[in-house]
Design goal:
- The structure is a homodimer of 483-residue chains.
- Chain A is an alpha/beta fold and 483 residues long.
- Chain A is built from 17 helices and 19 strands.
- In chain A, the strands form 4 sheets. A 7-stranded mixed β-sheet of chain A has the order 9-8-11-10-12-13-14, sandwiched between helices. The first copy, chain A, has a 5-stranded parallel β-sheet with strand order 2-1-5-6-7, sandwiched between helices. In chain A, strands 15, 16, 17, 18 and 19 form a 5-stranded parallel β-sheet that branches.
- In chain A, helix 11 links the parallel strand 15 and strand 16.
- In chain A, helix 6 runs parallel beside helix 7.
Amino acid sequence: MINADRLAPLFTSGSIAVIGASRDVTKWGFNVLKHLIDGGFKGHIYPVNPNEDELLGRTVYRDIADIPEKPDLAVVIVPPPAVVQVIRQCVGKGIRSGIVITAGFAELGDEGARLQAEMVAEARKGGMALVGPNCNGVMSPWNRQYVQFPPFFTPPGKFAVVAQSGNVMDVLARQAMLKGLGCSACVASGNEADLHTEDYLEYMGDDPHTRVIMCYTEGFKDGRRFLRVASEVSKKKPIIMVKVGKTQAGARAAASHTASIAGSDRIFDAVCKQAGVIRAGSLDEMLDTAIAFLRQPLPRGRRLGIVTAGGGWGVLAADACAERGFDVVKLPDEVISELDKLLPAWWNRGNPVDLVAGARADNIYKAVEVVMRCPEVDAMAFLSIMPALRIRSFLSPSSEEEKQNWGSIVTEATLAAMEEFNALSQKYAKPLVVASELLFADAVQDINIAYALGQRELIIHHMPHQAARALDALASYSEYLRR
Amino acid sequence: MINADRLAPLFTSGSIAVIGASRDVTKWGFNVLKHLIDGGFKGHIYPVNPNEDELLGRTVYRDIADIPEKPDLAVVIVPPPAVVQVIRQCVGKGIRSGIVITAGFAELGDEGARLQAEMVAEARKGGMALVGPNCNGVMSPWNRQYVQFPPFFTPPGKFAVVAQSGNVMDVLARQAMLKGLGCSACVASGNEADLHTEDYLEYMGDDPHTRVIMCYTEGFKDGRRFLRVASEVSKKKPIIMVKVGKTQAGARAAASHTASIAGSDRIFDAVCKQAGVIRAGSLDEMLDTAIAFLRQPLPRGRRLGIVTAGGGWGVLAADACAERGFDVVKLPDEVISELDKLLPAWWNRGNPVDLVAGARADNIYKAVEVVMRCPEVDAMAFLSIMPALRIRSFLSPSSEEEKQNWGSIVTEATLAAMEEFNALSQKYAKPLVVASELLFADAVQDINIAYALGQRELIIHHMPHQAARALDALASYSEYLRR
């Protein structure tokens, strides 16, 4: 509760001071101000710079003291030696939240660490909560409050991002956007001198906009607190994490990046298991998995049914899922008999169910339902979606009219197929993940389809192993909740 | 030599019979004929169907015997019971090469295996070499000879694909195309009743168009021959492989897909190491790695230098490369001193070299060269390419004129940066891989950039772990060649 109050201005400010705003387009002080404006922030913005009168159409204040009201939030982009004094002035003005973009603190060694400690002491004395230093900012799309360097604006959505690397935060927010999705709140936490990853996790656990939390960390200040907080938050919503510093080289790099102590990777792994945290191997895996959590029901076990319209893809999926602890079950005789009525005589009578060439869409959905309702199946994978599309020929337009609108016909048919699968998922409360190429689409169609799917919180995984990872995450999380 | 003669018509036919050509747009017999025509095959096409006179503007022949010349190649798309008779007729006509698309043979059990054996006996008796059965066809872009189901045409290029799954072949060929690259020859080998993966590898090893071979297999008929052939071919060009059937579930699926015996994965791994074959974990990894082989020099060791414009990405790369056996070396004092002259005073003085905000393009290339020419560095990774682009502000257009042409300005600047890196690579004969997001680009720009890069045989990896995999492949192959 106290935490929520402290952190709220970071995400729901009514007014923001940008201390160190600049005219130079290559500088952070320019870009942060510009993107705060371009992002459509509704409240007052107060640039502060002793040598400017006006920047980007906004009145510039010489001094923090000159600002005509008490801003909710201060963004600090001044050289390191000036930061302590700026924090003191912010405290004097009554500002309770700050984002310190400036780098050059603990990550550079003892002298920087001393400066950092002094800054934090000053802020804590004045009851001011700090993000950073050495960070890229905070995005709060629901408040159109984009304190950030790059020029894109991830729309409001359900993903929270906490990342010690601003680069990583930017990539996750942008990739979500390119896939038709948005974010609830994104924090680049930097050196975490004052506020730590655990503070943000706690806040996002209670944030009503946040459905899934993605987290990138280079090391924890307080492992016990992480375990406690993550265990509680995981009960409410999934946390997916990438942690670096697995190797010595990575740990050294983390220390020099954000002064983090990576710690033992084995211990971290055990902590994640205990806290219900899902660990991802890469940033793209993290995002793909996060999307899967939006609409998929959680499986009650790991008994898997696979239906595939491509033989090789079925084999790849069986391998990838079995490697991740799924049991590609022998389908019961009555399921096989039911499938016999739907599929050509020469179908393989196994799991994966190989639809063989020529299977029609109606029968494909019926076959999926037959497997889905089998009590010995907890989850499903479907590979190669093309023949499930309800288009006369999924390969190419069948008429001049189709040719004119082929792009949108393909997109609509793909959305409809995914909704049909999702309806079965919901009906039987079992997840169904899909991996597929769309062999008839061009690169732009590919993007448009992914975007349209994302807007409905759906994803077609590109490759079978990616679908397997998403299934594994759903199953692991389900296991944690049932524990 | 004998092998090359037997296989040549599959890729360089002057005339092709399509036996089982059809009017039904949902059938293979229609699509294979259509795409052979649409793909621009220059030679004669002879559709064969006893019930048609004309299809897609081509004269249809009632019988193979009626074809007015001896075709170089027969594509067979008739029901399984009719295949043996068709092969007999082909042999009678003097046809020496066939692609049997038809499924329903050994993958279905004993009766199918018997039929398959009979077909092969008939073909061998007549000196006819067979691809398949149960396969998707063969693409030979240099001869504009596309015997395939899906409606896209991968351009002529340097990648050969041998895949037991037609789906997998299609995906690799299409993905290469979407990334601005092309293929020399692609074979979906199916059940491999007559010609085996090793035959294709041998052929492609000598094929002058082929620079890199991508191979997907579900199991080998003859492990010793694979070892022998692959060892020889690997000396000439890299072979990158995905093998499925690692798990019991995958092995069962492979048996039901192409009647393959997956065998022990551990033994296969050992064979790959001995034969210099690079094993990839997924299809996208295989393609990314193949692209890296086109222009990167091979490293003489695994001592790695990393330069990064994004702190988190540097950590991710250090971790991923160290996990793959690279030594992220301590840079010698003289290298650090040289970098001191190029970078701001507060740079981290370590490896990864973190460029910190504000580094200019000129200094970035100089810094890369300082690390590159260090004799204690064998290979390099560069992360987050944005500040290396020679644009005034890489974030957004600086003028109205730039705004008009922003898409092409960004693409050109990215190409130029990658060429500049490549020039350093060539100068010092050390590979430099790049992983980066382009935070200022939209999804369509992303595609256009990837395509333009591909046309120059370059790739920016999406994530640091992908760059690490590519580096690992280059190093492994180099180690094989130096053995």
